[in-house]
Amino acid sequence: MAFADTLLSESDAHITMVDRLGKPGGHWNDAYSFVTLHQPSAFYGVNSMALGSGRKDSIGLNQGLYELASGPEVSGYFDRVMNHQLLPSGRLSYHPLSNYLGDGVFESLLSGAKTQVKVRKKLVDANYFSPNVPATHRPRFTVDAGVQLVPPGALPGLWHRSGNGPMPRRFVVIGAGKTAMDTCVWLLQSGTDPAALQWVVPRDSWLVNRVTTQTGPEFFDAAIGGQAEQMAAFAEASSVQDLFLRLEACGAVLRIDPEQTPSMFHLATVAAGEVGVLRRIKNVVRLGRVKALQATQMVLEKGQVPVQPHTLFIDCSASAVEPRPIQPIFQQDKIVLQMVRLPQPTFSAALTAYVEAHYDNDKDKNRLCGSVPFPHTLEMYPQAMMASMWNQFQWGQDKVLRQWIRDSRLDGFGKLMASASRDDAKKQAIIARFKAQAMAAMANIPKLIAAGAAAG
Ligand SMILES: Cc1cc2nc3c(=O)[nH]c(=O)nc-3n(C[C@H](O)[C@H](O)[C@H](O)COP(=O)(O)OP(=O)(O)OC[C@H]3O[C@@H](n4cnc5c(N)ncnc54)[C@H](O)[C@@H]3O)c2cc1C
């Protein structure tokens, strides 16, 4: 939708949008009810319509930071984008509950009717990097009859069971990504005794500290100063492990258990308060992935753990982004949407649409929109950062594109940097340090990539 929104405003294109779901909003339709954005609403969504009211949270674990839209808010927002923005343009036809079959053909899930579209310009695959969410994912472990396994979305409905049989008294959360973290935080804040909560953590994760993602002027030091420190970490690190320790030292990343060395970084973003809540969980199982849930035990890659009666398992094992190789975004008569700035999927889609509308050939378009790989291991992070920074460098050379980015509501940090007065010596010093460290980082990142590759 972010791609369609910008393409409609930047060209006279007509778009046929085909989606298997019955409502706009993609994976947000299937999200657990207590989901929120990980990053501020201010720079999520489509370019032409603001999301949220620009408030800061005054209560809760995100207190003092910019609001994070809830799942229902995001779904409502995409519904408004469709009905108030895209459809009224008169240049977009929307086909919900329709499955794309390939070769320009889609099938209505309701009538079974097939429609052949004559693609005049390009086919846009907006599904290549779409996330996998718990409600629509099938666990990769076996589950014996009688074992109670639910997705996180089922938890708020547990009250239906009260009075109709025994309520679960023990909870086992399977998975260690952001969904699992949200689920553990929700359970604890809703009254679960930490001693009744067991958390299966196959790998520990580094987490983005949300304070570094704030784009209000009062966060200039934390955001731009923080970026400068991150660049310094990239410039000075001698290995990938060293890089993450430096990123932790400057407050860019957090970890839940200081005794563990994380081996995963999926750019999950948290506030320090969430980490504080998660540290209350002492019963953490680090025996690899779950292979089987049986009536009396949980079988993991590296051992077994007994299961007590009235245990409810919560499946948070869906990997939001499946590891897929990157490919060129512009492929003659096809566009495969991918990230061009990490980790900004909607900014990336909007910028890709702008480039599609205003540049002539695939070579130039791919130069401006190099695909950025999603890091699945720590070793991949320098590569992803390099690709993201290289794109940023290319955009900086193009005055018109640079201005479009500056005006785009989806670009938070550029505006924040531009807002610094030339007379503000402190802010200008931060910007100068950021630029110098970014150059030094670009020089050192190839060494980190090589060191990561050598380490396997
Ligand atoms: C819990 C959570 C929180 C997040 N928070 C943030 C955040 O704060 N900030 C941020 O920038 N990003 C965030 N993200 C990431 C961001 O939401 C996603 O990367 C992005 O919105 C995904 O949109 P998408 O269109 O690529 O994928 P999806 O939303 O999955 O949409 C893909 C669509 O394609 C349809 N489809 C697939 N195959 C077919 C077919 N054959 N025929 C027809 N239709 C098909 C599907 O039905 C679906 O509607 C978050 C993700 C999650 C899971």
State the share of residues found in helices, binned by percent.
25-40%
What is the radius of gyration?
A: 23 Å
Structural class of the helix and strand makeup?
Answer: alpha/beta
Spatially, the strands of the biggest sheet line up as 8-18-9-10-14
Which percent range describes the beta-strand content? Answer: 15-25%
Distance, first to last CA = 38 Å
Structure description:
The protein contains 12 helices and 20 strands. It has a 5-stranded parallel β-sheet, with helices on one face. The relative contact order is 0.14. The longest helix has 30 residues, at 425-454. The chain is an alpha/beta fold. β3 and β4 form a beta hairpin. The chain has helices spanning 2-10, 71-86, 178-189, 220-236, 240-249, 272-278, 345-358, 362-368, 380-396, 399-407, 412-418, 425-454, and strands spanning 15-18, 92-95, 98-102, 105-108, 114-116, 123-125, 142-143, 148-150, 170-174, 197-200, 207-209, 253-254, 269-270, 283-285, 290-293, 297-300, 303-306, 311-315, 330-331, 334-336.
Write a concise keyword list for the protein shown above.
four-stranded mixed beta sheet, binds flavin-adenine dinucleotide, alpha/beta, five-stranded parallel beta sheet, single chain, 456 residues
In short:
Helix content is 34%, strand content 15%. The chain is α/β, with parallel strands linked by helices and 456 residues long.
Blueprint (SSEs and pairs):
Layout lengths: L1 H9 L4 E4 L52 H16 L5 E4 L2 E5 L2 E4 L5 E3 L6 E3 L16 E2 L4 E3 L19 E5 L3 H12 L7 E4 L6 E3 L10 H17 L3 H10 L3 E2 L14 E2 L1 H7 L4 E3 L4 E4 L3 E4 L2 E4 L4 E5 L14 E2 L2 E3 L8 H14 L3 H7 L11 H17 L2 H9 L4 H7 L6 H30 L2
Parallel strand pairs: 1-2, 6-20, 7-15, 8-18, 9-10, 9-18, 10-14, 11-13
Antiparallel strand pairs: 3-4, 4-5, 11-12, 15-16, 16-17, 19-20
The structure holds flavin-adenine dinucleotide.
Flavin-adenine dinucleotide (FAD) binds next to strand 3 and helix 7.
